[in-house]
Amino acid sequence: MIEYLPRSKQHPELHLTQFGMEDCTPGHFFGPAVRSHYLLHYVLSGEGVFEVGGIQYRLRKGQGFLIFPDIITYYQADPANPWSYCWFGFDGTSAKLLLKQAGLLKTSPIFHYDADDRIYRYLQLMNDSREFGKARETRLTGLLYLLLSLLVEFGPAASPELKETRAEIYVEKVKDFIEMNYPQKITIEDIAQFIGLNRSYLCSLFKQRLQLSIQDYLIRYRINKACEMMGNAELSIADISRSVGYNDALLFSKIFKKVKGSSPKHYRAEAYAKN
């Protein structure tokens, strides 16, 4: 069983390029060769070997290997106990980071997953998705995310380098949350709960990365948005205040002056004078 899929324009961040399953004959091999996308193999039964970078790995049921794009690899089924495996080809802008979170690197392309048969079930659901029409591509992408989430959850403990990468991800999540919700009455606790981290830890991490507290970042973001709205003559200062999350116009004016050095009214007048 094998199905090839076109490159996705709907999900450029992550998408399947192919998937399939094969019961290999004794000694069946592929390569040496290179691939143009990521290709994840998961052993369902039997044994075989995978070679990359001059290193040979012997694998069996519950193990798998990842082929990276443009890397020469070779793999072969055992002559006496040939493997059966399923595979998932994929690509996208988020693929590298997700694989890194799962501990899958060019220097460590092997993974283990023997908790249950979910990987095989995801393959079956991908195959069954043919009954879908316009939603099939989204469904396949969702199943791919579920598959990679297993590898992330059950992968090795994070390395210092990966922890650093995760810190950057958390900081970006804070910034994204503020960007989407700054007009609302949000708190630091709301942000920490959304991200799923302890409030104190998140605040410490954010300040360490940006040399700015989350609260100060939120205030500056709101005030900068208010400045962008000053050019709209249809909006009063009170309207702008409410639009950036301050129902109290006096409090807004006080904070605005502290950040910008002048009152909202004076700032607007200067902006109009320049234009």
Automatic annotation (TrEMBL):
Q: What's the domain of life for this entry?
A: Bacteria
PROSITE patterns associated with the record: HTH_ARAC_FAMILY_1, HTH_ARAC_FAMILY_2
Q: Name one Pfam family in it.
A: AraC_binding
Cite the HTH araC/xylS-type domain residue spans from the record: 172-270
Q: Name one GO molecular function term.
A: DNA-binding transcription factor activity
Q: Which UniProt keywords apply?
A: DNA-binding, Transcription, Transcription regulation
Q: Which InterPro entries match?
A: AraC-bd (IPR003313), Homeodomain-like_sf (IPR009057), HTH-like (IPR037923), HTH_AraC (IPR018060), HTH_AraC-typ_CS (IPR018062), Tscrpt_reg_AraC-type_HTH (IPR020449)
Any idea what this protein is called?
AraC family transcriptional regulator
